[in-house]
Amino acid sequence: MSDADHIPRSLLLFDGECGLCTRSVRFVLDRDRVGRLRFGSLQSDLGRRVLVANGLDPDELSSLVLVDAEGRVWTRSDAALRVSGDLGWPWSWGRAFLVVPRFLRDGVYDVIARNRIRWFGTADACELPAPGAAERFVG
């Protein structure tokens, strides 16, 4: 059995030390009413395992990583826009931006990623998930 066999599906990995990232997870949690996604930190053992298993640098923490329900791995703007597509109206309209060429989408994503700590700060403390959401955090 390979490491890939132990990677949860419908998993969103994020930088657990980034203020923007943790707020984004809270945003998704509040809008993913059917509880489709699970969440984990890129810094966790599971996060590092997912990155390595998919040929990604486990020390690079500036990207969202989505493992979708089919086991495909998406990063950067692909991950963000695919997550938005699962959130219901009006957020699902974000998925329409997938028609924009990736180099343009990722260019904008990279500017935000490079400046996220300066603009949004770090996660001040380990925020406890709302009741009923704790089981959606893995790793």
Kindly summarize this structure in a few lines:
With 139 residues, the chain is an alpha+beta fold. It contains 4 helices and 4 strands.
Describe the structure.
The chain is an alpha+beta fold and 139 residues long. It is built from 4 helices and 4 strands. Strands 2-1-3-4 form a 4-stranded mixed β-sheet, with helices on both faces. The longest helix has 19 residues, at 102-120. The two termini are 19 Å apart.
Features:
single chain; alpha+beta; four-stranded mixed β-sheet; 4 strands
H/E element sequence: EHEHEEHH
Could you give a short account of the major beta sheet? 4 strands, mixed
Give the averaged pLDDT, no decimals. 87
Residue fraction in strands: 5-15%
- Contiguous helical run count: 4
Rg over CA atoms: 14 Å
- How many β-strands, per DSSP? 4
Distance between the termini: 19 Å
* Global morphology: globular
Structural class: alpha+beta
